[in-house]
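forwarding from the other thread:

> can someone predict this with farnesyl diphosphate?

sure thing
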Amino acid sequence: MLHKLIRRKAERQNQSLVERISRSKKECIPSHIAIIMDGNGRWAKKRALPRVAGHHEGMKTVRKITRLANDLGVRALTVYAFSTENWKRPKLEVDFIMRLPEEFLGTYLPELIEQNVKVIMMGENDTLPRYTQNAIRKAMEATKENTGLVLNFALNYGSRAEITQAMQQIAQQVQEGTLTYSDVNEELISQHLMTCDLPEPDLLIRTSGEVRLSNFMLWQLAYTEFWFTETLWPDFDESCLLDAIDSYQNRNRRYGGLKGEDTN
Ligand code: FPP
């Protein structure tokens, strides 16, 4: 196993990006990749820049990674852009992040349309500033017929709030008599989550060396493969995404069961 990993690393170092992409496409590509984009503040601090400069650079990484994920044939890419807890940050920083969807989509919507990318959002929409809501709504409308990668912005998103809301909806239906308690199963709960139209993530990436979930997709990540890297989000590039996918392609997913020779 160790020899195999060392050999693959050496092979990677000698391959161009184009070769790596073509090689990656020959193996199983994760259908849904979810990313906790962390380390923007530290990236800026290392350069003696304000924290918001890190978020701005991080926005450019979203563009880069979306293009490659789409090219590889990934079906959905969920990016954690703002959590329900991030409101605790200084107002200046919150205001800056809330303007980013407008800037990102104002700049890149034409190329997202050209690349057949479909933009969606999960999170509490109503409490976002009007300009943020408008930018997202416009992009969703303009890309709703697209059939390529689904780019899902987790914005003002918190997994516990999402699960709580799902439970309230189900409880109300039981109370009204349209469901009985025995109808409540995993499938029904999944259908009430904000990800009801997406496959569960196959691969979760968190950048910047932090190793926690931070209230992100707690239900959906039950059988997801995790990949953590020290790389700060603004430095995360195509080669980093291919490293993560390469690692995923070498995992043995068992979903609690056994596979192959282990069953003997
Ligand atoms: C965490 O890094 C990052 C965020 C809370 C914001 C992430 C937002 C982006 C990458 C831009 C999103 C782009 C669009 C298009 C909406 P941190 O600030 O916690 O970093 P630190 O841990 O180094 O301080």
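The mean pLDDT is 95. thats all i got for now
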